[in-house]
Amino acid sequence: MDPALHTARAEALDCQRPSTEAGGTVVVADDTPANAEYLARLLTRDGYRVHRAHDGAEALKIVTDVVPDVVLLDVIMPERSGFDVCAAIKDNPATRFTPVVLITALDDPQHRIRGIEAGADDFLSKPVNPHELLARVRSLMRVKRYTDELDSAESVIMSLALTIEARDGYTDGHCRRLASLGVALGRAVGVDADDLEALRRGGVLHDIGKVGVPDTVLLKPGPLTPAEFDLMKQHTVVGDRLCGSLRSLTRVRPIVRHHHERRDGSGYPDQLEGDEIPLLAQIIGVVDVFDALTTDRPYRPALPLSTACTILEDEVRRGWRCGDLVSAFIALVHRDRLFAGAGRTGAP
Question: 132, 42 in Cβ contact below 8 A?
């Protein structure tokens, strides 16, 4: 389409468009200046901040620096194609939730399939219909805002978990160590990438329910009374409820609720038995015990790694732990000299 006609249509739309929340940021990448100018003008008049790129490499740099709300990519560009840039955006944890629209004059279904494989969220065909463009950008902008709100809420919960941990100087760093050890064990037993991410988050969030446990109980140096222990056990239920408000933590909730279950049914809060206990919760349960044993506590100093491994093996014999998980973890300890306590040197 002639660029002058593009401009005329954009100006005609100026009086027709519905109001849009200002503040959204869009990156437009097209190596044809007239096309980029047309899209930028159309979006600017609809209330968006627009960054323009003239090739794929420049587009990727702008996206990385700015982290926009929506990205519009021409498919055929020098340096890097729209397919390549889209795949790179989706591979970067900082930008993977940024909606990407591929704009193409190519009618070959294989190109659309290639775009889907690259992670594209939507497609537009050239010549671009301005009404369709603005409608799709508005829709994707709403999706991005919902995603950002969920991410912010999850960040608050993650921060709360670390704040709770800091209440007790003896457990400082415990959550981060569990995240690292849980992922290491999960990888060793072959869980998939999504479960590894759940283990990372679960390691941090497993004790978030302790927000409801008074300091007099949480920090008590001696043994807990039966009533105090009943109160302590509620942290798994409280933590499950806290995580239940976020769909993004769906895989994490079983870890938070069930990491204190035992395979013989003597754990809490639901007395699950055997494989009723979710695998990820069992993994965090193993590394939680190991970390507790190998760090200093008010009632005893950190135990040697060999002693901690012996205690885990004893828990297998008592029917509390999965033998395969414990064996895999002990192999990691011996192979990689894994240890939990800050400042420890891996005592034998």
Answer: no
Residue 156 placed within a domain: no
Helices 130-166 and 174-188, packing angle to 10 deg: 120
pLDDT number for residue 23 = 62
Identity at 174, one-letter amino acid code = H
Q: Is-contact 125 131, C-beta < 8 A? A: no
**Sign of the torsion formed by the C-alpha atoms of 214, 219, 224 and 225:** negative
Containing structural domain, residue 95: 3-147
Which residues are within 8 A (CB) of 301 and not within 5 positions of it... i.e. 6 or more apart? none
pTM above 0.70, yes or no: no
Q: Are residues 16 and 119 in the same domain?
A: yes
pLDDT digits (tens, 9 = 90+) for 12-65: 333 333 334 446 999 999 989 999 999 999 999 999 999 999 999 999 999 999
State the Cα–Cα distance between residues 271 and 260, nearest whole angstrom: 9
Tens of pLDDT, residue by residue over 121-139, are 888 888 889 999 999 899 8
What integer pLDDT is reported at residue 254 of this predicted model? 97
| List of E strands, the chain | 25-29, 49-53, 70-74, 100-104, 122-125
Retrieve residue 304's tokens: 């040697």
Phi, psi of 22 (to 5 degrees): -75, 160
CB of 51 closer than 8 Å to CB of 65: no
Based on the fold, state whether residues 64 and 102 are members of the same structural domain: yes
Q: Please list, in sequence order, all residues whose beta carbon lies within 8 angstroms of the beta carbon of residue 87, skipping any fewer than 6 positions away.
A: 118, 119
pLDDT at 297: 75
